[in-house]
Amino acid sequence: MRCDTCKKEVDEVMRVVVNKGYDRALARPMYNCRECFEKKEQTKRYNQAQTKDKP
Ligand SMILES: [Zn+2]
């Protein structure tokens, strides 16, 4: 299978649902290799930490 982020052909991909919240059209499943998956998870965690204090 192919990673949707880096387009690399990998043995194992993870399904990631990108949920932007404000735009449902952007909430779509993506297939990421482990590397990109971890990167996304980190970004997600970072974004959640950032938005937590906002009203
Ligand atoms: Zn990748």
Kindly describe this structure.
- The protein is of the alpha+beta class and 55 residues long.
- The protein has one domain (1-55).
- Helix content is 33%, strand content 18%.
- It has one helix spanning 34-51; strands at residues 14-18, 28-32.
- The protein is elongated.
- The structure holds zinc ion.
- Zinc ion binds at residues 3, 5-6, 8, 32-33, 35-36.
- The site of zinc ion (ZN) has 8 residues, from helix 1.
Kindly estimate the percentage of residues that lie in beta strands according to DSSP: 15-25%
List segments where confidence is low: pLDDT < 50 over at least 5 consecutive residues.
none
Number of strands: 2
What portion of residues is helical?
25-40%
Per-chain topology:
Blueprint: E1 14-18, E2 28-32, H1 34-51
Antiparallel strand pairs: 1-2
Bound molecules: zinc ion.
Residues 3, 5-6, 8, 32-33, 35-36 line the site of zinc ion.
Name the features.
55 residues; two-stranded antiparallel ribbon; 1 helix; 2 strands; elongated
In short:
With 55 residues, the chain is an alpha+beta fold. The chain has one helix spanning 34-51, and strands at 14-18, 28-32. Zinc ion binds next to helix 1.
